[in-house]
Amino acid sequence: MAFVKSGWLLRQSTILKRWKKNWFDLWSDGHLIYYDDQTRQSIEDKVHMPVDCINIRIGPECRDIQPPDGKPKDCLLQIVCRDGKTISLCAESADDCLAWKLTLQDSRTNTQAYGYGSYGGAYPMGTQVVYAANGHAYAVPYQYPYAGLYGQQPTNQVIIRERYRDSDSDLALGMLAGAATGMALGSLFWVF
Length: 192
Fold this sequence. Notes:
Layout: E1 3-12, E2 19-27, E3 31-35, E4 43-48, H1 49-52, E5 53-58, E6 76-81, E7 86-90, H2 94-110, E8 130-131, E9 137-143, E10 156-160, H3 167-191
Antiparallel strand pairs: 1-2, 1-7, 2-3, 3-4, 5-6, 6-7, 8-9, 9-10
């Protein structure tokens, strides 16, 4: 695996809202990892862009955030994650911010994400799992390996999987409730 992009960015802390300088590495597999410094010895956090990220905002699109002293709003970058977390960043310049956005956007859409289904196996190559707000996979875009006529690029197809209700647990609870009702009625009739 190789780095796609690396460099310093200012990151706003979540609690105190202070700006802190962190070293960021974006890997070719889509993981964005940030560290305390360039030695990469202490990982602060990581985000898997194809799975965790739902939006990337820059400049005026960034909400409820003020840039650090001496920086214009055009240097701001926000990564909005599926779990509700928002990572607020500030680049050295507006051009550097745009370069980070384009690279992160590319890693988000062009990186293969691997997931696991309820059947216990990995999804096929090219699969990207789409998650609902509650964290469950509900659709799987699958890129078919057939290149089509005239060597065209394959298109993404979306396969919608309906959620299956776990009827075994409903059946067990129904049987338990039936047995309890039967015992209660049996003891009631035994008295008469």
